[in-house]
Amino acid sequence: MHPKEGPSTRCVHYGRAVDPRTHAMNIPIYENAAFAYEDLGTWKEVALGRKAGDIYSRNSNPTVRAFNEKMAALEGAEAATDFSTGMAAINSTLFALLNPGQRAVTIKDAYGASYLHFKEILPRFGVLCEICETDDEESILAAIGRGCDLLYLESPTNPLLRVVDLEKLFAAAHRVGAVTVTDNTFATPINQHPLALESDLVIHSATKFIGGHNDLTAGVVCGKADLVKRIYRYRELTGPSLDPHRASLLLRSLKTLAIRVERQNTNALAVARFLQSQPNVLRVNYPGLETHTRHAVARKQMPGGYGGVLSFEVEGGLEAVAAILPRLRYAYLAANLGQVDTVVGPPSTTSHVECTEEERRAAGIPEGLIRYSAGIEDTEDLIDDLKSALSAH
């Protein structure tokens, strides 16, 4: 399923190629809108996909293809296709695979824009959507049993860090012929391999951990070749493709993905354990904590680590959040995660900014919740920073 090489070796050497003409070690940035051919016959063969090559960068580009191939290798997938943003990847996957009258099942506790696709957008196009309580496994299984063409899961979830048993739920979905999809953004290919747990497709907002430096937006879908081909066709026709500059930055970032994620795993676990001891912290959400309700499931399906993101609720609601966050010296207040810098914010301005307060409350997201994405700073500095900010509250 996944080869014997360690994660850092895979990140550095998968997709390795030395240009035979220039001997360049890095994949060049191919800045071409279109690619020219000397004869019509070859051009047509490439255009029809019967011969390798590129004709137009909205469809394919050598730099972008190198990124797709590396992501497919890291996820253990047959194929991958690129997008300009993570939401473009999610939207395109859903619209490429679902038709009017079909049924989609998902969970309530998911990234806000993903949740709203199932709540507001897909039903407008005749797709029947059932949104289940994330922690109610029997309810999810029952919804699958009533008929399911696509099961979409996120684990760990954004921002409550809930964990679902991917293997168990996807096995049930396959028994009724459903396509299974996992948003693996929080876990990354370093910590979790959904394709080994019965997922047909894996989606990443590559803006986050894959890119890791807050300098691009991107998305990618990896998985079974026939499904990726359908999604690529939709992306080809609608246009949200990745440009070669960003693909080059992603290829650079992937070389350090494993060491970044390993440090972020360490920092997040240490911060979560520290926060548990603070009197004005009501609860801490992190699957690496033994007190997490699905810690055993996380331990089984996240062998690489529990991720760099946690969330915690403070006494005093949004007013307390507004007082605490500006006191942090080593954290940016921003709507991003997975970057080398620590980033914090409440769901009302990050994961669920598109949702109303009522929708957040219905999803179990309190206004006093802080999402904390640990960077690669020194662990003790992050803990001291939080200690100072919380003690002044």
* Topology as a string of helices (H) and strands (E): HHHEHEHEHEHEHEEHHHEHEHEEHEH
Count of β-strands: 12
CATH architecture level-2 label of the domain at 259-391:
Alpha-Beta Complex
Task: Name the helicity range.
Answer: 25-40%
Secondary structure class reads alpha/beta
Largest sheet: 7 strands, mixed
In DSSP terms (H or I, runs of 4 or more residues), the helix count works out at 15
Spatial order of strands in the largest sheet:
1-7-6-5-4-2-3
Strand content: 5-15%
Q: Segments where pLDDT lies below 50 for 5+ residues? A: none
CATH topology of the domain at 259-391: Aspartate Aminotransferase, domain 1
Shape summary: globular
Q: Gyration radius, to the nearest Å?
A: 21 Å
Mean pLDDT: 95
- The level 1 CATH classification of the domain at 259-391 is Alpha Beta
Question: How does this structure look, described?
Answer:
With 393 residues, this protein is an alpha/beta fold. The chain has a domain at 259-391: Aspartate Aminotransferase, domain 1 (Alpha-Beta Complex). 40% of the residues lie in helices and 14% in strands. The chain has 15 helices and twelve strands. It has helices at residues 7-13, 40-47, 62-75, 86-97, 112-124, 137-145, 166-175, 188-191, 225-238, 244-254, 257-276, 295-301, 317-324, 357-362, 379-391, and strands spanning 79-83, 103-107, 128-132, 150-154, 179-183, 201-205, 219-223, 281-285, 309-314, 332-333, 343-345, 369-373. The strands form two sheets. A seven-stranded mixed sheet has the order 1-7-6-5-4-2-3, sandwiched between helices. A five-stranded mixed sheet has the order 8-9-12-11-10. The longest helix has 20 residues, at 257-276. The protein is globular. It starts with 6 loop residues before the first helix and ends with a helix.
